[in-house]
Amino acid sequence: MPTFFEYIDVSLPVPIDRPFTYRLPETLRHRVAPGCRIIVPFGSRKLTGVILRAHNDPPSVTAKEALRLLDAEPVLEEKLLALGRWVADYYCAPLGEVLRSMAPLTGEVRRTRVWALTDKGHSVIRQLLIGEPGNDTAVDLLRLLEQRALSETTLERKFPGAKKLLKSLEKKGLIELEQNLAERDPMRAPAARLRVEFQGRPAEVKLTKQERELVAYLELHPGTHNLEELELLVKGASQAARAMARRNLLILKPEALTADTSWAKPRHDLNPEQQAAYDEIRKALDAHHYQTFLLRGVTGSGKTEVYLSAIEAALQLDRGALLLVPEIALTPAMAGQFHSRFGDQVAILHSAFNDSERAEQWRRLRSGLAKVGVGTRSAVFAPVANLGLIIVDEEHDQSYKQEETPRYNGRDVAIVRAREAKAVVVLGSATPSLESRYNVERGKSRLLELPVRVGDRPMPTVELIDMREEFLETRQNGLFSRKLIEAIGAKIESGEQTVLLMNRRGFSASVACRSCGERVQCVNCAVALTFHRRDNRLLCHYCNFAQRVPQVCPHCGSEHIYFLGSGSEKVEDELHRHLPRARIARLDRDTVTGKNRYEQILGGFREGNYDILVGTQMIAKGHDIPNVTLVGVVSGDIGLAMPDFRSAERAFQLLTQVAGRAGRHSLPGTVLIQTINPDHYAIRCAAEQDFGKFYEKELQFRRLMRYPPFCAMANIVVRAEKQEDALRMSGQIANLLGMPEEGIKVLGPAEAPVPRLKNEFRYQTLIKAISRPKLNELLKCLRQHALDDKWPATALVVDVDPMSLL
Ligand code: ADP
Ligand code: ZN
Ligand code: ZN
């Protein structure tokens, strides 16, 4: 092997799926290696790509010269490059885009100027202070920026003439221009994301009045503080702290990385069931070969303790470990639990971190300083050295699937990665996905069960309340049955707590016209707008478009507008009416605005500041609050009627998970599920907490209909702003798939269940195949056709193993 290379093949984040060859300048010829990032010219642009190969074979056409090498050492080592190739192939995604989403460092060199909300902007949008009449564009624009910073070009496109508006918002101090998204000063993160550490008043330094006030407060309240919370207590704290941090008078740290060890739980000796599961995992680790386990443990059976012990075992064997958790579960509390057990050996990886935060954690793992990676979906690519164990908690969770290119499932990638690394995988859940459970039958993984709760605590008793009967008896179409209200009232009397699930946010599900029957729809999407009373606005849950409630029907001009259905906001409101003395907290995407709001609300509930916690599916996951003895489900039916073959599975999982929040400690728990489908098997099995029975039923349905796991499936969506373009392209798809081979079934093309989304028309085609390779081949043909026919880059969506068909 020469140590001197003239050429490199580079993978670039472009739709054309092949490597590009570049010539190296003299200075770089002995410094490159596969997996390093490099900046190269591409057309009139400069792109960052990943080197796949360095060589001395002159290409047939003259190669352009590479510009700048970004890494002295590969960011993607050989095995991760190979994993990237697998992902690209299996999910039919361009390799360059896969590699870009794998290496969290790519953003470091992006130099775009983007508009971002200032702290003031964040708090204003939260309170919607600028709801002055005629100012709706400003609100919409701020709402958009609340999700992420955007370039002026993008904003201009969405809001023609935005330039002037941007200037005026900047003057008001609501937004600011960020020179460079990635290399930006971490101190410029929003206050909610920063934590203040103060070591004491430095001698002989001049402080402003604001700074003196801040110092006075910090001296009286030692410890670290979240900057957003400080701002509420000390006026101008955010500005003062930033100014002081610049002079090294105090330290500002990214908040999410500061694990909160006060949540640490005592270490438990494993009970016999946990021990038996652990022993199996340990044996596989010792044997040093690949094995997947499915750990099915009922809610409250102590799965976390098994994970912790397994990670300890891996570390003892001098191997690294990865723990993947669902998006919502990765909180400072959870991080704290791992820190208290494994100290600085833990690196926390969250897709919500900015690039430099992620890069920092990534480096700690790569250098071996940290040996345990804990993170959400994308952490499956973390460079853990000598990987021995991957745990996927709540393996059925939908957040493991990435809903943009590359559309990989972190759980499945984990299995592939482990197989290559000769590592052990543990998939844990109380409600495993059908696919994972079926893999046990197929001998692909081994089942470990924790059939009972720890400490002989009983499972909660579950009762279904038939809301049709309730209506017949009371002649009232209320949100709550008499039984549920009574039960909640009794819990308040006895000082116990209630969790109440309403899996839809907002106040009313939609607004309709009594004259013509039309619902008010989003201008960008073919979906009904949801009424949010706090903002007094109609909101699109798909694209965040917001508008006022119209005075007259936009279709027929009638004044008879009325509100239909209900959401979590209304549940809270009605509950106040029924139980005026109850202290109620609400947890949904409307109340969880900042990074720490989720923790704050949940923490407040845990400390007993509230009697009732109302919320969407957010309240169903993972937490363990001792005093919760009643779980109510306002409508067990939401989701059942979705046009998706997984709707029953989802409903079952959600109901079982939320029921599992009740009676986890010394007090026994009760669950009341209101429903109009009490005979539906998903609801019945959830009520009986019988996973086995649900699995058998659902498997029958899947087998009969040839849905996964009995086929390999892909969803093809064609989208375009003009309907005729979308139609033309989906017509071509129909032609290409016209004469399907044996073992392949094509459904569609047809209008997608949401036929218009974010201003694009959408047509979808489902492909079911008996053979995975055949499916893969077919999908590659489609993609090649899109390239040959010069479709816009975003027009064709290929979703392999789709989790959602909406
Ligand atoms: P799961 O994730 O299976 O629903 P958790 O891991 O949250 O359950 O455990 C439920 C509770 O039981 C937690 O409070 C945990 O600290 C406690 N626990 C776990 N294992 C044991 C044990 N062996 N003995 C006593 N308590 C335990
Ligand atoms: Zn009308
Ligand atoms: Zn919309």
Describe the structure.
The chain has 7 domains: 7-110, 3-Layer(aba) Sandwich (GIY-YIG endonuclease); 119-173, no CATH class; 186-254, Arc Repressor Mutant, subunit A (Orthogonal Bundle), CATH 1.10.10; 261-455, P-loop containing nucleotide triphosphate hydrolases (Rossmann fold, 3-Layer(aba) Sandwich); 461-505 and 568-701, Rossmann fold; 508-565, no CATH class; 712-800, Ribosomal protein S10 (Alpha-Beta Plaits). The chain is 33% helix and 21% strand. It is an alpha/beta fold and 806 residues long. It is globular and about 85 Å long. The strands form 8 sheets. The chain has a 7-stranded parallel beta sheet, sandwiched between helices. It has a 6-stranded parallel beta sheet with strand order 19-29-28-20-27-26, with helices on both faces. Strands 2-1-4-3-5 form a 5-stranded antiparallel beta sheet. Helix 7 (209-220) crosses helix 9 (237-246) and helix 10 (272-287) packs parallel to helix 11. Strand 28, helix 20 (647-659) and strand 29 (670-675) form a beta-alpha-beta unit. The protein contains 24 helices and 33 strands. The structure holds adenosine-5'-diphosphate and zinc ion (2 copies). One zinc ion is lined by residues 522, 524-525, 540, 542-543, 545. One zinc ion binds at residues 513, 515-516, 518, 553, 555-556, 558.
